[in-house]
Structure prediction request, 167 residues.
Amino acid sequence: MGYRKIELKDLSFHPFEQIGKEWMLITAGNKEKFNTMTASWGGVGVLWNKNVATIYIRPQRYTKEFIDAGDTFSLTFFGKECRDALTLCGRKSGRDCDKVKEAGLTPNFDFAAPTFEEGKLIFICKKLYAQELTPNSFLDNEIEKNYPNKDYHTMYIGEILEVYQKD
Prediction:
């Protein structure tokens, strides 16, 4: 099965389900060296007259190095059959093991950022903005409970350049 490029206007996408409950993989790098991580925080919308995706990465995540070093990243969405693979990619670090191999995922380098053959939906994004979250900007004191180690996320906004759906 291959992928077909689709227009965003034709996309049937439920971000609260697909990001928040089903999760996604954030991947950056190139064929020689890349990393991926599972994420359940993020969003999609329109900003600066562009269709964008927003992702959040803690400073200790290995994938952050790849996001910071490159211009593009991918967001890959899977079916329920890949839940164990996404769980593994969220718990293990690519610094310590070949988690992609352990998860049984097949890297795909056919796009501007690495992704995976098992994915059902792919967003290819170009970085537009990065900003470290700071606790003095939290307007709700409850937010701080998400940071017992004071490891505040960096927020990245990427323009969604292309969307691919599995045939």
